[in-house]
Structure formats: C-alpha cells, structure tokens
Amino acid sequence: MRRILITGAFGQIGSELAVRLRQIYGQDAVMTTDIRHSSSETAQSGPFRTLDVTDGKAFYHAVKSHQADTIIHLAALLSATAEALPMQAWQLNMGGLLNALEAARELDCRLFTPSSIAAFGMETPRFGTPQDTMQRPATMYGINKVAGELLCDYYFHKYRVDTRGLRFPGLISHAAPPGGGTTDYAVDMYVSAVKTGRFTSYIDKGTFLDLMYMPDAIHAVIKLMEADASRLKHRNAFNVTAMSVDPEGIAASIRRHMPSFELDYGIDPLRQSIADGWPDAIDASAAREEWDFHADYDLDRMTDDMLSNLKEKSTYSETSANLL
Ligand code: NAD
Hints:
This protein has helices spanning about 10-25, 40-45, 55-65, 80-85, 85-105, 140-160, 185-195, 215-225, 245-255, 270-275, 285-290, 300-324, and strands spanning about 5, 30-35, 50, 70-75, 110, 115, 125-130, 165, 165-170, 170, 200, 210-215, 240, 245, 260-265, 280.
C-alpha cells in the first residue's frame, strides 16, 4: 500500500485506521472520504474529500484524482440499522461495494472490504465456526455480507482484482462511537460504567459473541493488506477474533476495577434476534496460517485500556466544563 483512499472514514473503524495509516505511509498518501464532515483528529490529519459511495462516477474520480493504488472500503449500514432500513442497506452495502470493485478493476487498485460474523446463520456451527462453512444468514446485513464476500471472490477470479477482507467480530473502541451494530452493547457498557457505574444491557446474559479490540483490528487490516499474495488461499473474508464473551463476562472484567458496577437487563428484541443468529466463537486458524494473524488484547487487557482511556476523557471533559 502506498496511496490509499478510505471510504466511510469517519466511522468507528476508519477514524482510527486512517490515523494509523498516515503514521505509516505519510499524511498525504491517505485520502479520507465520507458522506459527512467531521471535526475529528482523523479529518484534521490529512486530505479529505466528500464522497457518496453510491455515486459510481464520483467514486471513480476520487480514486483516480488521488492516484490511489489501494481502496479501503468501509462505508456501510451496520447490522441493527440495516435491519431497520433494509432497502437503504441493500443500496448502500451492495451498490457501494460494486462501485468500489469497479473503481478497483478500472484503476488497478488493491481493495479491502470487511465482512462480519453476521455472514453466518442459524445452521452454521456455533462453536469453532470454520473458515469454510454453511452461510445462510437471515438478516439483510448478513445477506449483504455473504453477497459481498462472493462478489469480491468473483472480481479476483474473473478480473484478477487484488481483493482482501476480514470477517470482523464486534469491535470495541473508545475513540469513535459505534455505528449501529449489535455488539455496540459492549462499548456502551464500558461508557456507562465510567459515567454512571451501572448499565442496562439490551443483549441477554449467556449470549456469547466474538469481540476484538480496535488496535488488534487495525493491525489485522494492515497485516492482511501487506501479506504475501502467494500465501493467501482465501483472500476474502478471513475469520478473525480475539475473545468470545457475554455481558456477564464483561461486567466481571469491569468489576476488577469497579467492584460496585451494576448490570441488569432490558432486552431489545431486534438486536437480540440478530445476535442469536451469530456464532458463539469462530475459528481464526486460516488467518493465522495464511498471514500470521494474532491478537494482543484479551478481555481483561482490553477492559483495562478501555476504562483507563474513558476515565481520562471524562476527567478531561469535566475539567474543560469547569474552565468555561
Ligand atoms: P460506521 O457505521 O461507524 O461508519 C460508517 C461510515 O460510513 C460513517 O462515517 C458514515 O458517515 C459513512 N457513510 C454512510 N453512508 C455513506 C455513503 N453513502 N457514502 C459514503 N460514506 C457513507 O461503521 P464501522 O463500524 O466503521 O464499519 C465499517 C465496516 O466494517 C462496515 O462494512 C461494517 O459492516 C464492517 N464491520 C464493522 C464492525 C464493527 O464492530 N464496527 C464489525 C464487523 C464488520
């Protein structure tokens, strides 16, 4: 990767990925794009262009004018929002991806697109979910992700576009708020713990899902994009994960620092039904074998870092408020 264009760059992943890519490849080499503006560090740290990814011509021109050799395509509607707005989800998730693939084909770019653990389904083995397995998701988001995986494989086999991708689990971060996914409950629990010392979880106890801390996710994207192509048997949609936990497990990890933290439940039927269709714990051995994937953060290490960063932010905002 030398000159990179990121779509949906002001979302949860792009906000941190863009900053890291600029540290590695240089400020001007990384063009951030999004349909909205932002005053974040990501927006300030290098070139930005407004781009609606459903506009194929604009997409092509943005890639061409930046002379990009790599597209990181992150613009999408996430699981819970996609289920509430299925038509918009299809148009953005599939239309945007097709435009990304076409721009990559015409301008000879490498393309990264994330899939998700949502790409499985009720018939998929729930434990040790294999890399290659039954995929019959029942949600619009899951259907978009399976179709996206297949489209990326198609562009590689038919046009030799260098497509690569990861099946992300729920990603946890303190920098940018999550964008309407089902595992957002975990981020919300940390934020709530620091603000109020308690949390009402909309995902039920005993619902185990794969999670990964954002620094590991960022590292995995860069490692896969730099991986030796001759070692990649799968290319798209590698299973990656760092832990499998339920709300009680996160609460127990938080209580190591805050013994009085309280957790109760008010289940959201939409997000619970989405979570019930996802695996409990996926198997990431193909990623380990083909490009040496590893995750540094387990649950307790992630909790330590999340709480320390969130506490620092809340102290900072209290101090700023007192100064006003
Ligand atoms: P996000 O919702 O935080 O950000 C998406 C960004 O896309 C937003 O900044 C939004 O403004 C932008 N966007 C929306 N419509 C657009 C359009 N028409 N044109 C251009 N930009 C548009 O999402 P995220 O969490 O950063 O996820 C990025 C990708 O990773 C998605 O494909 C998502 O499915 C996948 N993923 C994320 C997670 C996770 O936990 N965050 C897990 C699995 C997969």
